[in-house]
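thought: fold this chain, then report.
action: predict
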Amino acid sequence: MKTIFVSVWCVLFSGMLLNCNAVSSNTSQNTDQNSQLQREWMLTAFGSYSKSDLIAKKAAINLTEKAENGKVKGSAFMGCNSMFFTSEFKNNGKVKMSEIGSTLKACQDMKLEMDFSKAFRNITTYSVKGHSLTLTDDQGNRMEFIAADWD
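observation:
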């Protein structure tokens, strides 16, 4: 009886240890992903806009808010209005942008802002390589960013 009890206890304890290790590993992976993504990103390539046009407009997105339930509230600026959104970055390279809105100032040149807003709603995938973030839609249209703390 004692031998059976000890055997069952060892099996249960081993299973518990393996489960703790799996949770720790997943948490570490999500933390690494968040630390790569959760920063300010300067827009360097988008559509037919030149890099100098994007820099002059101070075009950027900010993903520095604390992640809650796998979602990060972000903001964007393309030279006129402040934009806001919720992003959900998945481990498989997929991303979902939702709750997109902006302030409603009227500015002289709002073309970049309107083009960005329209394209940003369709973003479905992302990749981070070093200090670069690329957002892409299903038609292959890309937005390229560089980490603001790196440039």
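thought: worth noting. The CA atoms of residues 41 and 147 lie 5 Å apart.
final: tokens above.
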